[in-house]
User: What shape does this take?
Amino acid sequence: MIRTITQTAKVGKPVHIRLDAFLRQQTELWNVALQERQDCYKKTGRSISYYEQQKSLTKIRKDPEFSQYHAQTQRSALRRIDEAFQAFFRRVKAGEKPGYPRLKSRHRGVHSFDVPDPRFNGNSIRIKGIGTIRFKELPEGKTTMVRIIKSALRVSIQFVVKKENTCTRKPHEPIGVDLGLKDRAILSSGMTLDAGRIDRRTLKRLQRKLSRAEKGSNSRRKKVMALRREWERVRIIEHDELHRATSEIMKSHNCIAVENLQIDNMVKNHNLARAIMEQQWGKFVDMLAYKAESAGGEVVRVAPHNTSTDCSVCGHRQKMPLHKRRFDCGGCGVSLDRDVNASRNILKQGYLLAGWEMGQESALPGAPENVRKDVMVNAGGNSGKTGQDAEQYVT
Ligand SMILES: [Zn+2]
Assistant: This one.
């Protein structure tokens, strides 16, 4: 299992300055490497490889400006551009919008670099030409790479860690999670997770200010920086909130069924609030997935069709306009909160899809005994239309 763990780094002022200088040089290298690739293609019609660009860098390294850094660290920019091109060709091949790698300006330059095969000295790492970067603690497992990131608010260190999964906990207590309308998640147990309302007013105000600033002016640049800082501040809060919410679920469940939201719909959707929420949802699910995996469980993504229109108890389908907050079943007469009903449908599909063993309490809370049995039989046989329908959504 490969994980990335990010920590805020502690660096002194001189290191800050040298870090800036190094990142400026990385930006320069990115641009030179991009130019070299373009020129080569124009002249010869073929692409230049990462290894060829490495050789060019060796020549540049005769300059002490460049040789003051470790070559391996310096190659970071070349690896990045190679990845950018590979991604570009992959998108072209897949018929997606390609997005050609672009030149970077001084103000929008490279802001991170990788150190492969890092050597640590306690809770710090020394990088030649830059200095010592301290951090809180070395994560468990083998760190194969660290990434140093300089953002608007801080310097962070990201560890890419290879870890054996030693968890022996068995999958237990499956649960369904539905995305509610007001940035919250509703669990099939009836529990509601408030994702915490994040105050975006300052962000909006700064955006407005920026849009009025004169292009190329100094004051505009300052406003850009202020916006970036605020942006990062909001992102950090969001991230912490997500950790809190996912940990809350993980306390008593490690098998989780969620809706598989389609990214394509998200792009088409012009409702900004919804788009933000769905983006958050993607991160939320990713986080759940790695936490579930390290706890011996799993996350199953199910088709989001009809989860709100079908009765989770008897399967009766009825119209459910958005303003209706309760599902009053016309078939069996059950009355459930709209979102709880949806999350139970999601859980049901999760059972069918993953073949989770049904514990006595875990089986569809609130459902009559005969319905539980019914679901259990379906889950065991792993047949039935729903199962096949949903299969293509397993990831
Ligand atoms: Zn019903």
